[in-house]
Amino acid sequence: xxxxxxxxxxxxxxxxxxxxxxxxxxxxxxxxxxxxxxxxxxxxxxxxxxxxxxxxxxxxxxxxxxxxxxxxxxxxxxxxxxxxxxxxxxxxxxxxxxxxxxxxxxxxxxxxxxxxxxxxxxxxxxxxxxxxxxxxxxxxxxxxxxxxxxxxxxxxxxxxxxxxxxxxxxxxxxxxxxxxxxxxxxxxxxxxxxxxxxxxxxxxxxxxxxxxxxxxxxxxxxxxxxxxxxxxxxxxxxxxxxxxxxxxxxxxxxxxxxxxxxxxxxxxxxxxxxxxxxxx
Length: 280
What we know:
Number of strands: 17
Shape: globular
Largest sheet: 7 strands, antiparallel
Strand content: 15-25%
Strand order of the largest sheet: 9-16-10-13-14-15-17
CATH class of the largest domain: Mainly Beta
Radius of gyration: 22 Å
Number of domains: 2
Oligomer: single chain
């Protein structure tokens, strides 16, 4: 993938950058692996807004991704590398000898006609191959990890994500996640060798509000720009400080530095908390 700039014909395009899609080999998805996406606008079953600033956006379909990689010991051939509007990483279409086709999250440098395999036995350390964590040597880049054996990958799936196996001890393996967190997971969990594709995704600048609306993100208004009855930060003549000891949310709760994770049984599996800040 590469990032391209365009001529600044408008103020919105002056600082905007775009994906050149040079790694895409096919533009239309496999019809049997596509389903409709329900659009909620951030509302729950009662019609109440539970996630703010969502709505609108371009229509999109869901690609059915094989996160379990449970077709073991059967080599598959990469047919195409495709764009998925629901995620930053690319997806790869695999063709198995029995004619079945499945999508997987593509690693960096995976090419068409490459052959990949998923197995619980030791496999060749080759990008795209999937195996259990205990078969991965220390220091080898992995992504697309399971948190519980057989339930499908949920860790390190985003564009450019990369994790490392730091060693296996007893029933658990210590994994360094993209956030910097070091966590113990069962050594029977599956993972994919390599780095998740499209690492330059984080460098793309939208440049205009319109592009953000196409993604389904509605405007976010600052608390200081509101009235006092709408937000604790509101009111005042001109630009005023918030006038509070701590920044507050719209509902009066402390906004920054508040731990939101409740005590869980899995806390004992976290060796080191994450160090990287989440992007807003």
